[in-house]
Amino acid sequence: MLKAHRKTIPGRPRDPSLAARRHDEILGAAAKLFAERGYAATDLQIVADALGVGKGTLYRYFPSKEQLFLAAVDRGMRKMRECVDAARTAVSDPLDQIVEAMAAYLGFFDEHPELAELLIQERAVFRDRKKPTYFEHREANVGRWRDLFAGLIADGRVRKMSVEQITNVFSNLGYGTMFTNFFAGRAEVASGSGPGDCGGGLSRHPHRW
């Protein structure tokens, strides 16, 4: 017996950007809630309520709270890298690129202190991870900074030393200053001081250099 062929009525084509926007909205809301409440106290229902969606919507994007949290941290690191890249490419001189990149890096964390909080939580909650998200991103991007310092040394603009050493010094300096600013910034927030733009951290806090 031949089966009747059901005629398919074409519906509205799916907007691929809609899923991407919803994905980003979920991560943005989750980052703020995890930072404010802590990992343990942030249930997925709380995130869903903040977004005005059902809990099932979150599970379609993120099967677990752990995956949502780690994706939120990764999103923050990607946005930070975009900010630093934009600042670096805005100038041509390599030394200026270093200055502008560091300013953008610290400025980004001033503007988005929730990312620093998430990095702290990740180290505390997921101690068994082989490599925290911050250092995954650092490892993926450090090569171009080594190349930049190697070029400066070759041109005689920086004294001869290990490229690995000078790269690590600048990386560790930025990392440590970021957390120093974060803890100091809590007092500024309490006193009513607000964050600046993506690259404004250094001009507002020259004493932190």
What does this entry look like structurally?
With 209 residues, the protein is an all-alpha fold. It has a domain at 69-208: Tetracycline Repressor, domain 2 (Orthogonal Bundle), CATH 1.10.357. The protein contains nine helices and no strands. It has helices at 16-37, 44-51, 55-61, 65-89, 94-111, 113-125, 133-154, 163-190, 201-204. 22% of the residues are buried.
Question: What fold name stands as the CATH topology of the domain at 69-208?
Answer: Tetracycline Repressor, domain 2
What does the overall shape look like? elongated
CATH class of the domain at 69-208: Mainly Alpha
Gyration radius (Cα, Å) is 22 Å
Query: In the CATH classification, which architecture of the domain at 69-208 applies?
Result: Orthogonal Bundle
Uncertain stretches: 199-209
Derived from helix and strand composition plus strand pairing, the structural class reads mainly alpha
Major sheet attributes: none
Portion of residues in helices?
A: over 70%
Content of β-strand: under 5%
